[in-house]
Design a protein that fits this description.
By secondary structure, the protein is an alpha+beta fold. It is built from six helices and five strands; from the N terminus they run H-H-H-H-E-H-E-E-H-E-E. Strand 4 and strand 5 form a beta hairpin. Helix 2 packs antiparallel against helix 3.
Length: 246
């Protein structure tokens, strides 16, 4: 009945064309709405994962600082009771450096509008001022190349490496190269310190173990070895990854 009524005004071929066109328009708007909704959900999930990574890193740094200060205070108390004032002064100085470094470690986590390159450059400059160790940096990272979660891990790797240098290397100069290559990215850190003993297993050291864990978390390879001219070098690398830069 309806088809017969409409045929009085619209030919069947024209009606079929209109129906097809209307179906296409409705499908287009529905698909657009659906994909935008999915995109918003994915964006919220990514932001939530990034916030969680930052929160976990803050918790880790706070716990690490608490444990480190507790150990130093215990050591300080022992040395004071033994009357070893020089050792006590050294412990106080070391604790002061730990607190200072922890403060700008916490201040250097991902922030809105601040790139990883900018944060690393600032942190390295402050670290050099704090320790008196010269840094030769070569950092060439495009903005937003890494996710916030990966940035947290990479920044933590740099912090762990430089903390080990400050505590154990006896170095006067450190070189860091962090760059994007055709097949991925590469992070190389080398110092001119004492290196590591031949019979020492570097992966048993807490800092080195943390670097290895962080590297595994972002799918990167990790190598550490003595340099021929003295000192230690670590190298992390990753194969090509999907990014907004292709």
């Amino acid at each position: 009945m309806r088809h017969t009524f409409l045929l009085q005004y619209i030919p069947m071929a024209t009606g079929n064309y209109y129906i097809t066109f209307l179906t296409f328009i409705l499908s287009y708007f529905y698909a657009t709405w659906m994909f935008r909704s999915i995109e918003r959900i994915n964006r919220r999930l990514t932001e939530e994962q990034s916030r969680r990574a930052v929160y976990e890193e803050r918790e880790r740094l706070a716990g690490e600082l608490h444990d480190s200060i507790a150990q130093t205070l215990f050591y300080l108390n022992v040395k004071l009771q033994q009357g070893q004032m020089e050792e006590a002064r050294f412990a106080v100085s070391d604790m002061d450096q730990q607190v200072r470094q922890a403060i700008f470690n916490l201040r250097s986590l991902p922030e809105e509008g601040v790139s990883l390159k900018q944060r690393l450059s600032k942190w390295l400059k402050e670290w050099s001022t704090l320790t008196g160790i010269e840094i030769i940096p070569e950092i060439d990272i495009p903005p937003a190349y890494f996710s916030s979660g990966d940035e947290v891990q990479l920044f933590g790797i740099v912090q762990e490496a430089f903390t080990n240098i400050r505590k154990h290397a006896g170095a006067k100069k450190v070189q860091i190269i962090f760059t994007i290559l055709a097949d991925g990215w590469r992070l190389w850190i080398a110092d001119d310190g004492i290196g590591m003993m031949v019979d020492m297993n570097p992966t048993k050291k807490y800092g080195i173990s943390m670097i290895k864990q962080r590297a595994a978390a972002i799918g990167a390879t990790f190598d550490i070895c003595n340099r021929e001219k003295g000192g230690l070098e670590i190298c992390l690398a990753s194969h090509a990854r999907e990014s907004k830069f292709g």
